């Protein structure tokens, strides 16, 4: 084998090994960076720069303390909200925000999104196949409203279709007969399949 051919074979193998390594390390690295970003963001919710030196609160400047305190605060608020009296206070505050001009649009939108994913009234737990663009083309989505007659659309449903490789999506109002429920896969598997562009096995 000539030196030129050997060099070509070596370069080809080197390139193949590079992409194999990238395929292994990229998901790990992106996941680690995402977790690190979330950790730092939550940890920095407590402004450490305003904490004076030589005080009993100086421990708040240590890395991770803010993250732990935020998690504890979230758990405590969740626990207190289960109490009847404290829960009524939270409900009153919630009602006030939902009635405040301008703020109500931001607050209710964010609240509904969180409720859809982790609330007691989860919305993305009914995966379906829906015909939107043609009879032979199916989109994977989730039923968010089974009755949209308030929009003047009798016999229609609201279906949320997530975009691949994004946190966005679109809502389609389609006839019930163009929706096929997916009974053999979970909502999590359906979401992962749709967001991954269909490359994830289900």
UniProtKB/TrEMBL annotation:
InterPro entries: COV1-like. It comes from the Bacteria. Signal peptide: none annotated. Keywords: Membrane, Transmembrane, Transmembrane helix. The chain crosses the membrane at residues 21-39, 59-80. PANTHER family: COV-LIKE PROTEIN 1 (PTHR31876), PROTEIN LIKE COV 2 (PTHR31876:SF26). This is DUF502 domain-containing protein. It comes from Chitinophaga fulva.
């Amino acid at each position: 084998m000539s030196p030129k051919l050997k060099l070509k074979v070596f370069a080809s193998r080197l390139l193949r090994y590079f992409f194999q390594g990238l395929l292994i390390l990229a998901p790990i690295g992106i996941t680690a960076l995402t977790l690190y970003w979330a950790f730092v963001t939550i940890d920095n919710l407590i402004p450490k720069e305003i904490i004076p030196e030589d005080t009993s609160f100086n421990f708040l400047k240590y890395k991770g303390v803010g993250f732990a305190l935020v998690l504890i605060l979230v758990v405590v608020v969740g626990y207190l909200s289960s109490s009847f009296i404290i829960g009524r206070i939270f409900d009153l505050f919630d009602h006030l925000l939902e009635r405040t001009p301008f703020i109500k649009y931001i607050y209710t939108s964010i609240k509904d999104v969180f409720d859809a994913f982790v609330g007691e009234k989860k919305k993305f737990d009914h995966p379906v196949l829906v015909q939107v663009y043609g009879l032979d083309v199916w989109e994977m989505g989730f039923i968010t409203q089974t009755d949209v007659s308030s929009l003047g659309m009798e016999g229609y449903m609201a279906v949320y279709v997530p975009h691949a490789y994004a946190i966005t999506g679109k809502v389609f109002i389609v006839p019930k007969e163009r929706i096929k429920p997916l009974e053999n896969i979970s909502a999590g598997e359906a979401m992962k399949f749709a967001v991954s562009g269909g490359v994830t096995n289900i």
